[in-house]
Amino acid sequence: MNRSDGSRRLFLKLTALFSAGAALHTGGLLAKPAGMTPQTTRFAMPRTEGIRPVSIASYNGLESVRRATEGMRNGEDTLDAVLAGVNIVEDDPADDSVGYGGLPNEDGVVELDSCVMHGPTMRGAGVAALRGIRNPSRVAKVVMERTDHVLLVGEGALRFARAHGFREENLLTDASREKWLRWKERLSTEDDWLPPHTPEDRNIGALALEEYERPTGTINCLGVNANGDVSGVTTTSGLAFKIPGRVGDSPILGAGLYVDNSVGAAGSTGRGEANLLSLASFLIVERMRQGDTPTDACLFACRRIVEQTKMKRLLDKTGRPAFNVNFYALTIHGEHGSASIWSGKKYAVNDGGESRLLDAAFLYQS
Ligand code: GLY
Which of 121, 206, 258, 360 could anchor a disulfide with 338, C-beta 3.0 to 4.6 Å? Predict the structure, then answer.
């Protein structure tokens, strides 16, 4: 059923009213942390006309948004469309942040997290710390459809996946195993794991531990169809070399993903621990309900995380977060946006033509 022109006009009117208020509120928050005022030039984004169907994703989802939008144009359910989109990345060994070929935990075992949410029925579910199944997003959908539960983890999630015919396999590719080994061999000069070295090398511990960052890649994909129905999915192998059993934001509804079929959807990538403490996807959807544009709502969530980050070990020399979190948001009208704490991030969009990468807004210039 198409949403009526009347309700759309009402939405736009309310939106205009609330946007003014939201901008003022934004200004108040910005002034707070002295000496670390974020850039203001990108705030209060003008409300643009959306196109539907449209799908957006994190930067690694160019192919995903193409597949998702094509599916929605062909009448596919919005959740099936975004799922098919992220399955491409889960199956791709070249993306070491998601699914098959994802970077493993500290024991060298790949553990995957994912959740899905279906706007039209307001159902959702997740799986966490799932081993041996390359498409955790598909398992999450079956949890949603075939149980009375919303979250299954670890061994229980694996047994559930087996019961539903998911094929088990070793998800660790040689490339990811090599990266894990590199990390492990440079962890300490006191243990017995040594990086490759020559007879002349003396200080093996100094062999570039600092050159190795632990990635927190992920894919989030959101889609809205011509009727204004919206769904989303987030899927990841989580923080590289994590403590076994560590779960980030990606499988947690309200944190890594949230959908409300009367407003829109939001999702995240980046440091999951920060987002778990702010439940930012839910926050972003609520901000959009109050009239924020998608970009402003994402920026609001970024500022919330900045304000909530008190631990010195998580701050850089200037008192700003020493990590990044990225948010993606889409309204039921097809408007979209993205923002990160730090600059330089992009997000993928497909509204019917070629998929393209757009700049995300940000609080701080990297
Ligand atoms: N955002 C992905 C993770 O922290 O696991």
Answer: 360
